[in-house]
Amino acid sequence: MSTDATTATSAAPGAEPPHGIGASLPSAESRVKTEGTFPYASDLWAEGLLWAAVLRSPHAHARIVSVDTSHALEMPGVRAVVTHEDVPGERTHGRRTADRPVFASDVVRHHGEAIAAVAADHPDTARMAAAAVIVEYEVLEPVTDPEKAFEAEPLHPDGNLIRHIPLRHGDPEAAGELVVEGLYRIGRQDPAPIGAEAGLAVPRPDGGVELYIASTDPHADRDRAAACFGIAPDRVKVVVTGVPGATADREDASFQLPLGLLALRTGCPVKLTATREESFLGHAHRHPTLLRYRHHADAEGRLVKVEAQVLLDAGAYADTSSEALAAAVSFACGPYVVPNAFIEGWAVRTNNPPSGHVRGEGALQVCAAYEAQMDKIAKKLGVDPAELRLRNAMATGDILPTGQTVTCPAPVAELLAAVRDFPLPDLPKDTPEDEWLLPGGPEGAGEPAAVRRGVGYGLGMVQLLGAEGTDEVSTATVKVHDGVATVICAAVETGQGFTTLARQIVQETLGIEDVRVAPVDTDQPPAGPSCRGRHTWVSGGAVERAAKMVRTQLLQPLAHKFGMSTELLQITDGKITSYDGVLSTTVTEALDGKELWATAQCRPHPTEPLDEAGQGDAFVGMAFCAIRAVVDVDIEIGAVRVVELAVAQDVGRILNPAQLRARIEAGVTQGVGAALTENLRTPRGLVRHPDLTGYALPTALDTPDIRIVKLVEERDVVAPFGAKAASAVPVVTSPAAIASAVRAATGRPVNRLPIRPQAAVATT
Questions:
Q1: 431, pLDDT greater than 70
Q2: What is the Cα–Cα distance from 237 to 240, expressed in whole angstroms?
Q3: Helix 363-381 with 728-746: angle, nearest 10 deg
Q4: Mutual orientation of helices 385-392 and 412-421 as an angle, nearest 10°?
Q5: pLDDT of residue 477
Q6: What is the model's pLDDT at position 478?
């Protein structure tokens, strides 16, 4: 259950404009998705369609002795079988480092790695044929402990160490009167997409191929595919279709590349629809992380120095681990003023499943650890945990441990005070016993007398956009014809609301009600990946600039006719008026059948890589969140029920109130899963129970009351509209807050996520 108790500076719902910025404009896809008529990638069809299946390794680590495809090829209905020998171009790929093979050749490095792919005239035939490929393995001992990866034999030609960041800031000899230490472990969270991976590859007459997939970064996917197919990028077209939503990268290349290769080999359209098990085995997960911390504080609880070691388990391949490590190390001290910080961060390869981009990567793991440390300091000093955090809260103008000055709005203390002062929910004793919602389920699994309530806090921060010199740029075109505006931009709608925002921008800028957003494909200029809220910033900024250029084209003839500048004209509700009232006409009349269009780019200010001491202006901007968690814990059986999460967040500017609330609530709920239920277990590197019965996602019964108590609208002057990304920072913050509340209820340290029942059993 989610409720809104917002005390933000935004207007009341009744005062919202009918359209444009600030309106709760519904998503264009909301109706078709709820009616079940939205065309997902798994719904695609083409004449002469073949079906694909991928053979995946049953071992976490093994040497491939031989691969025999003859039995599969002899099966009726089988049209092609491809292995590593059939990859005509680059045989490895990767999002940042090309270290991952299209098909394993000499060795498999993780459970589920692709070995071969089959195309057949029926999906069952394809799966049986894939199973008929005979692979002889020499099973090797897997390296699954990231600490042992440093001394283990190299698992990859590039070695086991992907990146090491030693951050040095301040005086290494600094010491505090009080010292607390902790060891923390964060589990492997799966993005668990609503729809499993699916796609269609269609060969082209020019020897190229079109990929119809739910990509979140179509141009990067096109370039990787072209390199592996051995053809020019302009002969590969990616058409984005049927994205059901994404909290991580969609459509892993281990699905796309075999699909395209089979289409090129057979000359026929080929479709792949992954099973849920294949989805779990094929795509990347959140980095499991081991963290060691030592905090120094003075007698008043003010932080003096933070020392930490952060070890990310990247799994078999590098993927986005370098970026995740940079975020983890940079934000290892949290949104607190820390004059001295010494952080060691490593990302290493193991034989565990690959880790990659999942919302809030790097920042979530360290948030759980540094907030546990803050609770320890508060307990040692006998200080209220919220008060301790307020004494150390970061503000605009403070310095990050990376040496970067926080120039964006950072109302951390204001956010924390808002959730601290929000009224607490009623205690169970204040309601009839038959209305209690006890830990363990609707009926409760234990005795009411064993239930203890705890209140805890979390303060989180995330980066906005890419970091360390990433060239963040997006291009958009706005066209107006016959009273209809069309936005052309390769920014993928993944549920973050970009298409709705694009409509609102054009409505407000041009006064045109009918705004449409064109489907995305790689014939359009690049817009970059759909992550870290970047499309609100860079793609929304590009749409705004293009719309303003069209506005100038629209108003210039009128301004010239009446001898005034375009700045003296305004567009409101489809009408153009001058400051003095002399001119009054409609947008439709001013267009007079003309077609107007403009193309623009948005590129934020540049950043720089962290240097050898972990110093540098690596981030364009940051967002902050405070959450107060209230939990009930059955201290005898360790069951936890999250009663309420009070959220305060800095959002820069509210562009769509309803959409913003939905994004925050969704992020908080994903954090509840990371805190309590979601942990993809991989004993000896083997994914156990790769399905939605063995992997426990939070349901409606697990979702607490979510009270959005404050949204601070302090605009970031360098961002278009002044807005900040909304969904990642509550994901980062809510697990830490829940763990803090469980500590308060039980007196236990709670140093692992998700929280195990034995960790929530109170000490006697």
A1: no
A2: 10
A3: 30
A4: 160
A5: 97
A6: 96
Q: Which two tokens stand for residue 32?
A: 């078709």
Amino acid in position 536? T
Residues 6+ apart with CB under 8 A from 580: none
- DSSP state for residue 720 in the 8-state scheme: G
**Which phi and psi angles does 716 have, rounded to 5°?**
-80, 115
Write a three-state SS string for 153-209. CCCCCCCCEEEEEEEEECCCCCCCCEEEEEEEEECCCCCCCCCCCEEEEEECCCCCE
Q: Are 695 and 680 a contacting pair, CB within 8 Å? A: yes
527 Rama sector, left if φ>0, alpha if ψ -120 to 50, beta otherwise: alpha
pLDDT digits (tens, 9 = 90+) for 449-493: 888 999 999 999 999 988 898 888 999 999 999 889 999 999 998
Contact assessment for residue 415 and residue 712, using Cβ atoms and an 8 Å cutoff:
yes
Among residues 210, 199, 200, the alpha carbon closest in space to that of 250 is found at: 199
> How confident is the model over 336-362, as pLDDT tens digits?
999 999 999 999 999 999 999 898 999
Encoded tokens for 25 = 């404009």
The mean pLDDT value for 391-401 works out to 97
Q: Which residues contact 43 (CB under 8 A, 6 or more apart)?
A: 242
Q: 206: which 2 tokens?
A: 């020019």
Q: Tokens in use for 286?
A: 């959140």
DSSP β-ladder status, 161-169 and 178-186: unpaired
Contact (Cβ atoms closer than 8 angstroms) between residue 319 and residue 284: yes
User: Could you report the per-residue pLDDT of 290-311, keeping only the tens digit for each?
Assistant: 999 999 999 999 999 999 999 9
* Max intra-chain CA distance, the chain: 85
Q: Which helix (H) or strand (E) holds 2?
A: strand 2-3
What share of residues in the chain are helix, strand, coil (percent, to 5)?
30, 25, 45
The DSSP code sequence of 652-713 is SS-S-HHHHHHHHHHHHHHHHHHHHT-----GGGPPSS-STTTS----TTT--EEEEEEEE-
User: Would you call 12 helix, strand, or coil by DSSP?
Assistant: coil
pLDDT at 11: 36
User: Rounded to an integer, what distance in angstroms lies between the CA atom of residue 447 and that of residue 461?
Assistant: 38
Q: Whole-prediction pTM value?
A: 0.94
